[in-house]
Amino acid sequence: MTSHQTQSGQAPTRACDLCQGSSSEALLSKNGADYRRCLACGFVFGDYSQEEWDQRNADAFEASLEEYAAKSYTPAKQRRYGRRLSVLEPYRGGGNLLEIGSNVGGFLHAARSAGWSPVGIEPVAACAEYARSERGLQVHACTLEVAELPSDHFDALYSNAVFEHLWSPTRTLAEATRVLRPGGVVFLDTVNYDSYTRRFLEEKWKLYDPAMHACIYTPDTLKRLCMGAGLTPLWMRSHRVHLRPNAAPRLGRIARRVEELVKLPFGLAARWRLRGESIQVLACK
Ligand SMILES: [Zn+2]
Asked: Which stretches within the chain are classed as H helix?
């Protein structure tokens, strides 16, 4: 894996998706793709066409179907999904739940077990087909924008580790807001550019990769995304810190203890200051 800083002064391929601003600075070049940061709003986005991105994304997910199918239905994973569902419970209403990027359907399965009527959106055909034929779930094998779902219908919308893969998150969230009922909520969990991990590791951080993620958020840009779609953020949360890259050699027992001690204050501050690797928002229509 090679990486280097992009030459400044290169003209961007695209405008900022969040504010439509055309002024941006080169941020990172890694694995054959570039990140830029909007000078107006701070949004960090991959600098490529939608066609180029769609092809890259589809290839990556087709290759991981078996891995996802094996780990999404374990009892431990289902209990974890159950805890996520408890966040949405106060907004249950008629029980209509939509997941954007439902992958092989593990979360939809947990939602159905908890009494919801879940529907999935999954553009990777092999993943959608697995959820339908092997698990009997209702999944649309397309993007949300072309699914033609009814307006003001869903009580809750859930999306985990998906919004960093979207070429145009503003377009997707606008459509999500249209299908959500007034008073319904959107729960998003995505990657945090402002995290301590990114500051410690920079391009050595696995998730900070324009070839893997089309955009990366900060608490500010995620809030701006929600408000731009007509949603009101209710709360944000953040957690998880890494001091060393995922591929770093395994430490011995004592070194691991020392690392845990060093990480402890950063782990607490990450939650308090929204500086963890993952960032979550609950927003209301
Ligand atoms: Zn912008």
From this structure: 50-63, 65-71, 75-88, 106-113, 125-135, 169-179, 196-201, 219-228, 253-273
For the stretch 120-148, pLDDT in tens is 999 888 899 999 999 999 999 999 999 99
Residues composing the chain? 285
Compute, in angstroms, the gap from residue 226 CA to the centroid of ligand 1.
14
Report the predicted TM-score, pTM, of the whole model to 2 decimal places: 0.91
Structure tokens at 259: 């690392």
10-residue block means of pLDDT along the chain (285 residues)?
A: 43 90 94 95 95 78 76 95 97 97 96 98 92 97 96 98 95 98 98 94 92 96 98 95 80 85 85 94 98
Which one, of 196, 186, 202, 199, lies nearest residue 99 by Cα? 186
Q: Distance between CA 30 and CA 143 in Å, rounded?
A: 27
Cα(88) to ligand 1 centroid in Å equals: 30
Strands 139-140, 117-121: pairing is parallel
The class level of CATH for 51-284 reads alpha beta
Instruction: Supply the pLDDT for residue 11.
Output: 74
Reading the block at residue 204, the tokens are 């050595």
108 CA from centroid of ligand 1 (Å): 33
The two beta strands, 3-4 and 24-30, are antiparallel
Distance 180 CA to ligand 1 centre (A): 25
Strand partners, 33: 30
- Terminal C-alpha separation, the chain: 43
